[in-house]
Structure formats: C-alpha cells, structure tokens
Amino acid sequence: MTFHQLRTGEFFCFSGMTKAKVYRKVNATYCSQNGFLQPIRPHTRIRRLSSSEVKEYLTVKPNSALSNNMEHNHRW
C-alpha cells in the first residue's frame, strides 16, 4: 500500500519497519509522529495498522511519554 492510498487520520508504519515507529496521515503530503509534522511522498510504501495495533499503540504511547519524561527529570 502507498501513502496516497491511506485515508487522512489513519495510523501506519513504513513497510518492513517495526511498529515502534508509528505515524498518522495528516494530509496528502504530511504525516506526524509524536506531534511533529514530516513531509512524505505519495508513492512511499507503508503498512496500515490494524484497529487492534492502533489500540495497543494508543494504550502504550502515554506510558512511554511519561516514563521518558520521568527519566529526563531524574537526570537533572
């Protein structure tokens, strides 16, 4: 599947990559990862995440951000 075929708002990862790097389609030429916009070519090969993968990602994501923030604060 290509980025162009994906609907706006859907979650995906790059073909051949792990789910650790999850992106969301923002519009026809941009995606976001952790709130940062990144340009992407329409013909880029991607893999759409299933609803269960999205649910898992959204469940784990806040905990990851919290633990990273706590680790960062601990260093100071």
Strands, helices and their partners?
Layout: E1 11-14, E2 23-25, E3 30-33, E4 36-39, E5 46-48, H1 51-75
Antiparallel strand pairs: 1-2, 1-5, 2-3, 3-4
Describe the structure.
Helices cover 33% and strands 24% of the residues. It has one helix and five strands; from the N terminus they run βββββα. A five-stranded antiparallel beta sheet has the order 4-3-2-1-5, with no helix packed on it. The chain has one domain. It has one helix spanning 51-75, and strands spanning 11-14, 23-25, 30-33, 36-39, 46-48. Residues 65-76 have low confidence and may be disordered. The termini are far apart. The chain is globular and about 30 Å long. The chain has 76 residues and is an alpha+beta fold.
Q: Low-confidence spans: pLDDT under 50, at least 5 residues?
A: 65-76
Radius of gyration: 14 Å
| Topology as a string of helices (H) and strands (E) | EEEEEH
Structural class: alpha+beta
**In what range is the share of β-strand residues?**
15-25%
**Count of extended strands:** 5
Number of domains: 1
How would the global form be characterised?
globular
- Reading side by side through the largest sheet, how are the strands ordered? 4-3-2-1-5
Question: What key phrases describe this protein's structure?
Answer:
24% strand, alpha+beta, globular, 33% helix, 5 strands, 1 helix, single chain, five-stranded antiparallel β-sheet, 76 residues
Brief account:
Helices cover 33% and strands 24% of the residues.
